[in-house]
Amino acid sequence: MKRNKKIGVLGLSLISINAILGLKNIPFAATIGPSAVSFWILAALLYFIPISLIVAELSTAFPEQGGISAWVERAFGKKAAFLCGWFFWVANFTYYPSLLIGITVNVSYAINAPQIISNTWFTTIVSLVIFWSLTILTLRGTQVSGKMSAIGAPIGVLVPAILIFGFGLASLITGHPSATPFTAETIAPRNLSMDSVMFLSTLMFAFSGIEMIGTIAKDVHNPQRTFPKTILIASIAIGIIYILATAAFQFVIKITPDDTATALYQFADVIGQQFHLPFNLAQILGICFVIAILGSLTFLILNPSIMMAESGKGILPEKLIKANKNDMPANLILWQAAGVSVILISSGFIPSVSQALNMLVLMATLAFFIPYVFLLLAYIKLRKSEKTAIRPFKIKKDFWAYLTAAVGLFSVIGTIVLTLIPASGTTLAEYTPMIIGPAVFALLGLWFYSRGKKKQESSLKKAG
Questions:
Q1: SS3 363
Q2: R_g of the chain, CA atoms, integer Å
Q3: 327: left (phi over 0), alpha (psi -120 to 50) or beta
Q4: pLDDT tens digits for range 200-232
Q5: pTM for this prediction
Q6: Nearest Cα to 66, choosing from 204, 219, 224, 206?
Q7: Number of helices (H) and strands (E), helices first, in the chain?
Q8: Domains with residue ranges and CATH for the chain
Q9: Segments of the chain with pLDDT less than 50
């Protein structure tokens, strides 16, 4: 079979930026006020930088297809790797719908018909059509994701980020009063509370995704050099965009948590009025955001399935993880699409888009952070047990390596624990799916593993 062209530094950087950077996180961050700048920095120091350094070291030392699950298997064996890959796979069942519900908002503004987002069932149907279309496209291989990200990252992410920052700065320079007072006192985090710590955890989730590049190691050109360069470029770009765009956003408008789904378009409307723009900025942003999500979703769809296929070898039915002619686990990807469709249809019963979006993000946060515990513990184990492994990129001293992992573990475990504590005003209907969902998935994962092992042992006995 003819091999696809390998992905280089630029291509992998664009995939990473497009997959991780979510401009929808900017209005959410802005809800806390100017101190969001400090919270972004804290999230980067406590979570993003430690995870990025660790992923850079692991991906260059062990550039194996499967990413996290491959590293966890090397450290702790098959069962741990399977559960890690399983949680990563199912976490995306709630993350995809949150992205898809968000894209329907963007589509409505892109076609200049924002009124359609009030129809929850319409947004559900549009989400299903988009997701299945991209799922089928994803079956064609990693190069499709690379090409779509090459368009999505510059046009869908960087252009709107520049527009938001540029117009926010222009609004300030031209004498328009800032909607939010920026002073040393307001920027500093104040009144440390459970809500503010939970807010920090959500911003950490906004930085998640850099570990996913390890799952396509065999499709990357010279991974020992490409991975660290990619992580450096993506980390700097993502951190700067989040901080500057959030600050600029708050210069122009002040929003509440109920406005997060449409806040970026409220920003565009205010800017249009301030500068009497001859074009519809909201519509331009809508088009950009649609391109961004379309570009990132192809990679986000295939990534967990590749990890699950690698960690599920010998456990899941061979037919389920069998690769198609493009080396994609087609059946697993299609089953994933079916599960996401069930969740999307269920979300149609939730009254508003913003409520559905916020609930799905919270559900994803808990399940999504569990694989990071596996990742960080695997790093500590491999640092001790694989001392002779060649590490083109390495945290030099063991003390700093273990401290980096400890900071990451503290942040991740703290986030998981805090997610289990309901915020003030949370209803039972909102809280229950956050707890029951991951618990049910954990039991299912253990059942699949136990069933697969018994079947494997039975086959070996018959063969013997």
A1: helix
A2: 22
A3: left
A4: 877 887 888 777 776 666 677 787 778 788 888
A5: 0.78
A6: 219
A7: 19, 0
A8: 18-456 (1.20.1740.10)
A9: 1-3, 354
